[in-house]
Specification:
Radius of gyration: 17 Å
Shape: elongated
Helix content: 25-40%
Largest sheet: none
Distance between the termini: 48 Å
Length: 42
């Protein structure tokens, strides 16, 4: 069996699922990140 490449995971499977939920169901403002507004839409 091959050893996995890269660093070992730092999150448990439960933490990973919670993070995926937060990212896909919230805006940055809702989780405490201030949006940078430049005034450009391009």
């Amino acid at each position: 069996m091959k050893k996995p490449s890269g660093a070992p995971r730092k999150l448990s499977p439960e933490q990973e699922q919670e993070l995926i939920y937060v990212i896909t169901n919230n805006t940055p403002d809702e989780v405490g990140f201030e949006a940078i507004k430049t005034g450009q839409l391009s």
